[in-house]
Amino acid sequence: MGFDLFEDEHAVLEHSKKILKKEDASPQELRDGLENLLEGYQALFKGNKRMMRVSDRNEKKLKDAHSRIQSHQDELAKVHQALELHAETLEERVVERTAALALSQRKLEKLVELGIGLTAETNTDRLMERILAGGREIANAARATLFIRTEDDFLTFAYRSDSDKLPDTRLPLYDQQTGEPIHHFVSTHVALTGETVHLDDVYGDTGNFDLVGTRQFDAASGYRTESMLTVALQSRHGESLGVLQLLNALDPESGEVTVFDSELIGFVEALASQGAMALDNLKLMKDQEKLFEAIIQVLASAIDAKSPYTGGHCERVPELGKLLAQSICDIDEGPFADFSMTEDEWKAFYLAGWLHDCGKVTTPEYVVDKATKLETIYNRIHEIRMRFEVLRRDAEIEYLKEIAKRPSERDALEQQRDERFAELEEEFAFVATSNQGGEFMDPSRIERLNQIANRSWLRHFDDRLGLSIAELKRLDGIAPAPLPAVEKLIADKPQHVIPRSESPLSYKPWEWGFKVEIPKNLYDYGEMRNLSISRGTLTEEERFKINEHTIQTIIMLGQLPFPHILSGVAEMAGSHHETMMGSGYPKKLNREDMSVQARILAIADIFEALTAADRPYKPPKTLSQSLKIMGFMRNDGHIDPDLFDLFLRSGAWQEYAERYLKPQQIDSVDIEQFLSKPKRP
Is pLDDT of 93 > 60? Predict the structure, then answer.
């Protein structure tokens, strides 16, 4: 229930109403009621007067408050109006700033995109084109030119964004007479200092810069250059690599020529820096590749230089291999229709060709060059000839002694002596002929050698004087023969055998997958042993030492930290003595185990060896002879038949012959007789 301010007055009124309603009210009651009513009105009047006074005061306060509120409202309206104006300005600025941020974001994204593309590029020309196009796109320039600094301190025109022919002019960075740096040209100044030059009008105030060349170009081409931005390309070491010059900035909205936006210059400088780093990295990579190739070629040349008879082999094999490989890549049918090589694979293949015989650095040259059976450091036929000389002199001495005893029989003794001389000369000629290698040695010749070898001669000098420590060690346990000692004319002596313990294997064949039979001894210089070689000039031990060069090639290359793109070099280089049927060395691989490149090098190696005119153990073959032998090798499963047919059809052999063979070796060839014959159904 609420509070009633006039509760007492209401009570008086209610009491007075009750008296008036009483019909039998006494005069006294009426008088008392009237008095009470009057008193109530009197009190009510006083209260009203007080309330009116309070009301007046409140009304004044309300008026003052209203006036203040009205004033505040006016101030708030002004503030609101100001805020509305500020909000509109702020909104415009936000829109402008948002557009600027969006543009910067796009430029930054483009810069990142271009940076990724620049670092991934491995072709110098394409890299320079990317730098040129990227700078032009970021700056929204009409044209762009890229200058490259040469090693002799000139700037050359490398690329232009338009189709105009590149000028042949070279801009010197230093005065050719005084050697002073040239700063009056914009491009040379930027190249020398690394500073960015920003010109709003090349026909206006350009300071100390000489723009005559630009204006002359405009006059000749009809083009009008206005704004110019020139940025340096510097390496990480601060070295100038070139200059990027942008011409005529274009307004993105209207396409009209304008000045270059100062906010975009930083992006262009960042792109130029990234481009310079990529260019420097690529140059460094190219220089390293050139150095690596040069080292390989020096190594190969050193291998060839070890022997005057194999000089050029390591150089010719990769050239012939490249001819055959290119022929395979050019065809679009047959078993090699899908074969191709990337730029990196070409590099690996070419290096493998140069390195295919790098293991020969471990092969003694007297083994590589062994032209006769008795050859080691020198041809020991001279020793045997000297023994025949001793026997001849012995015969002469015996003849003279007999003459002294029987002078009357001089003619008969002289005839015996001459017959003995003739016999010795014939036997030596037979031995000397046997010392020369051939395709086959008949067993009867070996039997005859044994008969000749059993002749004896008398040695009067100690054969242990002047020997090396290693030679004396081989004689341990062998008692010296008393002098004069009877020696066989041709002998196999214990000291002729060089045990493998003197030079043990430096590798474990099974760990590398080598499947080779390793001779017990390192070498065997036995005279009869060597003269009895039935084919060629090499013993079993020497043949292994020759073949071991492929093992050493694989091991040497396997230990080099080749990058991934060159990871196949060892396989290609080390498989050129494998066959298609698993009978080769050192791993006895089959055709399926070998890459196409390895099989190409096998053919190149064989053809070069057959046609080489500098081998000491054989005369050079003609083209027809060489291809005929290779045809037999194809039939026996030694070389890839499909590759050999392609080798014949491509004419690679003919092109190689014209480059490297002597004229007398180039005879008429009918390749049809050497091609694979169709298999019968």
Answer: yes
